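We both want to read discrete structure tokens more fluently, so let's practise on a single case. Would you write everything just below, so we can both look at the same thing?
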Amino acid sequence: MSNRYAIILAAGKGTRMKSKLYKVLHQVCGKPMIRHVVDETRKADFSKLYVIVGHGADAVAATVGNEGECLLQKEQLGTGHAVLQAADQLADVDGTTVVLNGDTPLITHQTIEKLMRIQEEQAAAAAVLTAMVDDPTGYGRIIRDESGNVAKIVEEKDANSDEKRVKEINTGIYSFDNRKLFRLLKQVTNNNAQGEYYLPDVISLLVQSSEKVTVYTTEHFEETVGVNDRIQLAAAGKYMQERINRNMMENGVTLIDPDSTYLSAECTIGKDTIIYPGTVVTGASHIGNGCIIGPHSQIKNCAVGDETEIDQSVLEDSWIGSQVQIGPFAHIRPLSKIHDQAKVGNFVEVKNTEIGERSKASHLTYLGDATLGKDVNMGCGTITVNYDGKNKFATKIGDGAFIGCNANLIAPVTIGDGAFVAAGSTITKSVNDNALAIARSRQTNKEDYALKLNYRVNH
């Protein structure tokens, strides 16, 4: 692996987010911003990744996990001061160091790699990622000399009227010769409007030392946009969703209306699957080939096999086989397992339950803490009564069993293979294989008794 290092700045609190959650932990398409940046950085060729943390250091470090080494910036005194927190690790090391921001979730590893390559191929002391924008308000400006070379970077609050009209902006992403970066960081002062130590001042010091500074002007400005408030968070989410959806379609997934389809950054979907409008797929969900999903379905952290149909239903933390039919209006709750060719139909709720191949619960059924074998039929309105107010109990139904409508199966109970439970029964004892269970009161009709009840409405 090459001598390349990455530093991600993630110490800010994010006051403008107006949130108890630290800025870089806010999610874009289901993943914290810092994870987007870390994951893209890990795709590039780096020997080591460092994340500078401050506000919410423990929470940010937990989100980064083992993907990078977190270094604490006790006081937030500017971007230059933040990078200095890695001096003990990098100051005496040869190589290239890229500095990124933890609140730029749209950055891609391709852009990072191109920035490094330009700096290294030109033997430059630094390369600055820049962009041309119509409205540069809020960004540092790239100030060039008469020959077109970078002369300095001026922050918005320190810029004069002429400098503020410059439309080439600093994105805050750099590639440096590592030794030169840390040598000059010690010379940066805080003589500016904010009283902070600015990392861009290193660029000015390099120019003053006659070191070569080059730029890479990206054509994809949205990659570099930082998130400082909820409005920018929504904009970043829209850009990210467009990227995810476009990638899905390029790889063989049909999205009927991409603008109303919401897919997480970590989900995967197979070829020839059709996603209808209003569908939301979150977490690390995987949907197989040739499925039909939606409209208006929610799928969270589920594995779905091939050629399965899910119609206007909610699924979470469960495994779904191939050629399964779910919905409309079904709810698959966590820890459920639905095997191939099974059916979970209208207004059926399933929780911590395994349903065997070709088994059916077509409508108005609750299955909780149950195990169904193959080819089981669950009648309309059937309930596994799994909770006594303190404890949950299991129901087991064997292969080929037939459960009639409006049956109550009082757990713990076992229904044997091929058994038949008559409609309207309340089952409190296990039923043997191939047995018929009837558990209901004998019907009694009292002639003309309804007249005594006097419940009719007089018109």
Q: What stands out?
A: The chain has three domains: 4-224, 261-332, 345-459.
